[in-house]
C-alpha cells in the first residue's frame, strides 16, 4: 500500500536548470510507477496474507533502508542522542503516528476494496487538507479552492454512491486513511525546513514499524486472526517476496525525495494523478475489476480538482 501520493515536498530543489527539472520529473514518474506496482502487489498478497503481515514486512524493509541512510554519516552516541531529541519531537511523532494509522487503514481496506476505487478515495487527501487548512494552518482559502474541494467530494460520492458494490467497512477505512494522510501532509508542511528529510524518513519508518508490529506479533502468536479463516505462516520464500515488496515501496519514497530536490512542487504536483490512471489500468487488466462509468466520472472529478489545486499558488495565511 502506498502511504504517500499525493506526497508533500520535503526539500526544495537544489537547482533551477531545465535538465535538473527533467531529471526530477523522471524520478517522480518512476516513484509513481513503483507506488502503483506496490499497491497492486499488496492487493495480490492480501489474498494469502493478513494486513498486519504486509505492513510488518513493508516497514521492516523501509526501516532498514532508513537506518542505512543514517549510518552513512559518522555515528556517535552524541549524534544518536541528537537524533532522538529533535526540537519538534512532538510534531515528528504526531506525523509518524498519522502515517501509521494510514498504513493500517489502507492495507485493511484493500482486502475488500477494488484497487482503482480505493486509490481514488485516498486521493481526496489534498482536498481534505485544503478544507482543514483555515483552522489547522491558518491559511486563507479562496473561492476557486473551495470549488475544487466541492468538485472532489462530488467525485468521491460518485464512487461510493448508495447502491454501489463497494463494502461499507472498506470505504470507511479508506476515508479515515485519506483524512489521516491530509493531517500527515499538514504536519509535513509544519516541519518543512526545520528537520532534515532523512530524519523525517527515519522517524516515519521506525514509528510505523513499531505501531504495525503490534498486530503483526499478535497474529504470529495466534492471539489475533485478522484474516477470515486464518492463514498459514509464510515460508522463507514468501517472507523474501514480501520484504522485496517493502524494498520497492522504500525505493519509491527515496525517489520522491530525490525528485523534490530537483524540481519544484508546482511542477510535480499535477503529475500525482498519473498514479490514479495506473491504478485504473492495474485494476482492470491485473485484477479484472474495471470501475463502472459513474466511478470513472468520479475519479475524473477528483483528478481535475487535485490538478487545479496543484497549479494554483499556495494559499496565503490569514492575518
Q: Would you give an account of this structure?
A:
This protein is mainly alpha-helical. 71% of the residues lie in helices and 0% in strands. The protein has 13 helices and no strands. α1 (18-45) runs parallel beside α12, α4 packs antiparallel against α8 and α7 runs antiparallel to α13 (293-311).
- What form results from the Cα inertia axes? globular
Label the structural class. mainly alpha
Straight-line distance between termini = 39 Å
Helix share, percent: over 70%
Number of strands: 0
The pLDDT mean sits at: 80
Write out key terms for the chains shown.
71% helix; mainly alpha; 319 residues; globular; 13 helices
Provide a compact summary of the structure.
The chain has helices at residues 18-45, 51-70, 77-84, 89-109, 115-122, 125-136, 143-159, 168-191, 197-221, 236-262, 265-268, 274-285, 293-311.
SSE blueprint:
Layout: H1 18-45, H2 51-70, H3 77-84, H4 89-109, H5 115-122, H6 125-136, H7 143-159, H8 168-191, H9 197-221, H10 236-262, H11 265-268, H12 274-285, H13 293-311
Helix pairs in contact: 1-10, 1-12, 2-4, 2-9, 2-10, 4-8, 4-9, 5-12, 6-7, 6-8, 7-13
Amino acid at each position: 500500500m502506498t502511504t504517500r501520493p499525493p506526497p508533500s515536498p520535503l526539500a526544495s530543489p537544489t537547482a533551477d536548470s531545465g535538465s535538473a527539472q527533467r531529471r526530477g520529473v523522471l524520478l517522480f514518474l518512476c516513484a509513481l510507477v513503483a507506488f502503483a506496482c506496490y499497491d497492486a502487489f499488496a492487493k495480490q498478497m492480501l489474498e494469502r496474507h493478513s494486513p498486519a503481515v504486509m505492513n510488518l514486512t513493508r516497514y521492516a524493509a523501509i526501516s532498514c533502508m532508513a537506518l542505512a541512510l543514517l549510518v552513512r554519516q559518522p555515528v556517535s552516541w552524541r549524534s544518536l542522542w541528537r537524533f532522538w531529541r529533535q526540537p519538534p519531537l512532538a510534531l515528528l511523532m504526531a506525523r509518524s503516528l498519522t502515517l501509521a494509522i494510514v498504513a493500517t487503514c489502507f492495507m485493511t481496506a484493500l482486502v475488500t476494496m477494488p484497487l482503482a476505487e480505493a486509490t481514488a478515495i485516498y486521493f481526496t487527501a489534498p482536498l481534505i487538507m485544503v478544507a482543514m487548512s483555515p483552522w489547522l494552518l491558518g491559511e486563507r482559502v479562496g473561492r476557486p479552492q473551495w470549488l475544487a474541494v466541492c468538485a472532489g467530494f462530488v467525485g468521491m460520492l460518485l464512487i461510493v454512491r448508495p447502491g454501489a458494490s463497494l463494502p461499507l467497512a472498506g470505504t470507511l477505512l479508506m476515508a479515515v486513511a485519506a483524512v489521516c494522510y491530509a493531517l500527515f501532509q499538514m504536519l509535513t508542511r509544519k516541519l518543512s525546513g526545520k528537520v532534515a528529510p532523512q530524519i523525517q524518513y527515519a522517524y516515519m519508518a521506525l514509528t510505523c514499524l513499531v505501531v504495525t508490529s503490534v498486530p503483526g506479533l499478535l497474529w504470529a502468536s495466534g492471539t489475533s486472526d485478522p484474516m477470515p479463516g486464518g492463514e498459514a505462516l509464510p515460508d522463507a520464500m514468501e517472507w523474501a517476496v514480501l520484504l522485496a515488496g517493502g524494498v520497492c515501496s522504500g525505493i519509491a519514497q527515496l525517489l520522491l525525495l530525490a525528485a523534490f530536490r530537483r524540481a519544484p512542487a508546482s511542477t510535480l504536483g499535477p503529475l500525482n494523478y498519473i498514479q490514479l490512471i495506473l491504478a485504473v489500468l492495474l485494476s482492470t487488466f491485473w485484477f479484472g475489476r474495471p470501475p463502472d462509468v459513474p466511478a470513472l466520472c468520479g475519479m475524473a472529478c477528483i483528478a481535475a480538482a487535485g490538478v487545479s489545486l496543484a497549479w494554483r499558488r499556495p494559499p496565503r495565511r490569514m492575518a
